[in-house]
Automatic annotation (TrEMBL):
It comes from Thermobrachium celere DSM 8682. This is Bifunctional protein FolD. NADP(+) binds at residues 163-165, 229. The gene is folD. Residues 3-117 form the Tetrahydrofolate dehydrogenase/cyclohydrolase catalytic domain. Its EC number is 1.5.1.5, 3.5.4.9.
Length: 282
C-alpha cells in the first residue's frame, strides 16, 4: 500500500481549521515565523510546503531570510526579536545550521513556549520523558501520525530507524519508544546494515542520501517510511529510498514528495495552534 501523507495531512487539517476559527472568533490570529539561513534545497522545500499549508489553514507566516554567513549573535538577535513579538506564536528555524554558528547558543535562545519544532533543550527533555506539555519535533511526530492514521501497529514491533540526527533520528526513536516499539537506531557506522533492516517490521529512513535504500535492504513484511528530501540529478525531489525499486516488494511505503513532508508541515501548524493557545492562557 502507498501511504499518502497528503491524506493524513488533509484529515489533520480539518481539526486545525476548527481550532484556528475558534481563535479568530476571539480576535486572535495565529502566526508563524520561519527563520531560514541560506538556501538549502530541503529547507526551501519545507518552506514551500509550509506556506501552501498555511494558506489552506488561514494562518499567517513571516519568513526571515538570513545570509549564509550570518554571525551567531545576529541570529540570536533575530530570534530574540521574534520571542518578544506578541503577534508571533511559533518559530521554525531550519536545521542543520551552517557550521560556523554556535548551535548551543541558538537552541537556548528560542523561547520554549514558541519552540514548536523542539529545538530548546527544555522541550527535548520533555520528549525524552514522554511529557506532552512541550512540543515534539514536527518530522518525527509526522512519522507517528502516518503510522497511526493507517493503523499500522507500533506496539512491540521491531522498528529500525536509520539516522541519528537531533532533527529526526534521536527524537523519533524516543517517540516510538514511548509508543512501546522495540527500536534499533542505525547509522553510517552500523555493520551488516542490510541484515538489520531486512528484519524490520517498520523501516524509517532519515540519512539524507538520495535513493540509498534499495530492494536489498527490505522484505515483503516491511513498512517503509521515507523521511529523506533530496534533489536528484535532473532537479526532481526524491527520498532516501529508491521508491521504484522497492515499491512492489514491500508491504507499505511513503512517497516523496507527498509523504512525510506533507504531514510535517501540518504538524507544524498543529503545534503552532497549541503554542498560540498556551500563550493566550487557554
Ligand atoms: N528545523 C527543521 N529543519 C529542517 C527539517 C526539520 O524537520 N526541522 N527538515 C528538513 C526538511 N524536511 C524534512 O526532513 C522537509 C522537507 C519538505 C517538507 C514539505 O513540506 N514537503 C512537501 C512539499 C514539497 C515541495 O513542494 O517542495 C511534500 O513533501 O509534499 C517538509 C519537511 C530540513 N530542515
Amino acid at each position: 500500500m502507498i501511504l499518502y501523507g497528503r491524506e493524513v495531512a488533509d484529515k489533520m487539517s480539518e481539526e486545525i481549521l476548527n481550532e484556528v476559527k475558534e481563535l479568530k472568533d476571539k480576535g486572535i490570529e495565529p502566526k508563524l515565523a520561519i527563520v531560514r539561513v541560506g538556501r538549502n534545497e530541503s529547507d526551501l522545500s519545507y518552506e514551500r510546503g509550509a506556506i501552501k499549508r498555511a494558506e489552506k489553514l488561514g494562518i499567517k507566516v513571516e519568513v526571515f531570510e538570513l545570509q549564509e554567513d550570518i554571525k551567531t549573535d545576529d541570529l540570536v538577535g533575530c530570534i530574540e526579536r521574534i520571542n518578544n513579538d506578541k503577534l508571533i506564536h511559533g518559530i521554525l528555524l531550519f536545521r542543520p545550521l551552517p557550521k560556523h554558528i554556535d548551535e548551543n547558543h541558538i537552541k537556548n535562545a528560542i523561547n520554549p513556549i514558541k519552540d514548536i519544532d523542539c529545538i530548546n533543550p527544555i522541550n527535548v527533555a520533555k520528549v525524552m520523558e514522554g511529557d506532552k506539555t512541550g512540543f515534539a519535533p514536527c518530522t518525527p511526530s509526522a512519522v507517528v501520525e502516518i503510522l497511526k492514521h493507517y493503523n499500522i501497529d507500533i506496539k512491540g514491533k521491531n522498528v529500525v530507524v536509520i539516522g541519528r540526527s537531533m532533527v529526526v533520528g534521536k527524537p523519533l526513536s524516543m517517540l516510538l519508544l514511548n509508543e512501546d516499539a522495540t527500536v534499533t537506531i542505525c547509522h553510517s557506522k552500523t555493520q551488516n546494515l542490510k541484515e538489520v533492516t531486512k528484519n524490520a517490521d517498520i523501516l524509517i529512513v532519515a540519512i539524507g542520501r538520495a535513493k540509498f535504500i534499495n530492494r536489498e535492504y527490505v522484505s515483503n513484511k516491511t513498512t517503509v517510511i521515507d523521511v529523506g528530501i533530496n534533489v536528484d540529478s535532473v532537479g526532481n525531489l526524491c527520498g532516501d529510498v529508491d521508491f521504484d525499486d522497492v515499491k512492489e516488494l514491500v508491504k507499505d511505503i511513503t512517497p516523496v514528495p507527498g509523504g512525510v513532508g506533507a504531514v510535517t508541515n501540518t504538524v507544524l501548524f498543529k503545534n503552532l495552534v497549541k503554542a498560540c493557545k498556551m500563550q493566550m492562557g487557554y
